[in-house]
Amino acid sequence: MTSEDSAFTADLNRLFTAALVGIHRTRWISISALDGTEQAMRIMEGHRFDVLPIESGSDVAEYYGTDKWNDYSKVTRKKIEPDEVVRFDTPLLTLLQQFRAERTHFFLQDGRGKVVGLASLVNLNCRMARVCIYDSLCHLETMLAAFVAEEVGEEKLFALTFEGSSGADFESAKTAFQNHRAEGIEAPLVEYLNLWHFYKVIMKVKLYPKLDCTRDEMERFRGINELRHRIAHPTRPLISRPTETETIAAWVKQLMNLFAKLEQRSVKGARTVRSSPTRSETSRPRSSEQYGDSGSA
Length: 297
Fold this sequence. Notes:
The protein is of the alpha/beta class. It has twelve helices and eight strands.
């Protein structure tokens, strides 16, 4: 494969890695093993660091860490433990699931076991972390659209009703669909729906057994929509306190689990739903497959 070929077939899973949200050793601020705790406290408070790597020549085996998040009155010198280390090329979504309230940083190693970088909780608020999650949400939504379109059908889907704000939003989507049909735009109804609509449809029509889910299991997937809301507001931090890490990790895990169930169903022979003509033929560009693409999420 030529370099041009690889540029056209890039796997986003390989692009979105722990290294993208971390900082390389050549750029981080560290402290010498010969310096003391007081110097470490000054550096950490001045830069608002909760983790400060300790360099001893070419080795990094220790660090200073705050005992309490954002409290620089006491820092402790610690050895890097095995559960604080991941490879630098670990998929970012995998890394996100490993953060916990008590595990707010990971040292990044290369293939030889040498520490080459650091990824901390605050790094998860960077743009690339959001782009990675957003890309996965987009792919999931197109997979759900194909699933709902195939299993429900447009006529039955249009006849569905819901209560409360979900119902009003669903009716607005149907109105837009009808208005565009009157203008000659033959787009399928699923193109007017969103992630929450698909969840509500699956629950109401009881499609979850087709995803090898119980009703209780499917209800847990509603956390994915909360993740979608969080990602949709880029001016707000994804994580503002350590206690939120387990919630984000749980949402990402739900996202990956639902992916797995949809992909497993696809492997079993589910066909890709197509509509002709599609909105791509009248308004916007899209991939050649109606509700999927050639890349992985």
